[in-house]
UniProtKB/TrEMBL annotation:
The species this protein was found in: human gut metagenome
UniProt GO MF annotations: exonuclease activity
Record flagged with keyword Ligase: no
Official protein name in the record: ATP-dependent dsDNA exonuclease SbcC
Keyword Transmembrane appears in the UniProt entry: no
PANTHER family: ABC TRANSPORTER ABCH.3 (PTHR32114:SF2)
UniProt keyword annotations, A-Z: Exonuclease, Hydrolase, Nuclease
Length: 73
């Protein structure tokens, strides 16, 4: 009663210090809370995550100093 329901959660750079096993456990927990109408967004530079996340928004710096955005679904 009176609880707050979260529809979106973003994790910003929360994976860099995790070993492979802890990273797997963290991702499994995030998959567990996502789904239905809930969205989980991950902001990270950890290369190992690229292979494990199927939908990505990739932002890179371009030569003019601006940003390039690529969506992979």
């Amino acid at each position: 009663a009176g609880g707050v329901q979260l529809e979106a959660m973003f994790v910003d750079e929360g994976f860099g210090s995790l070993d492979s096993e802890a990273l797997q456990q963290a991702l499994a927990a995030l998959v567990g809370v996502s789904g239905g109408s809930r969205i989980v967004g991950i902001i990270s530079h950890v290369a190992e995550l690229k292979d494990r996340i199927d939908r990505q928004i990739i932002v890179t710096k371009d030569r003019s100093g601006g940003s390039r955005v690529q969506v992979q679904a």
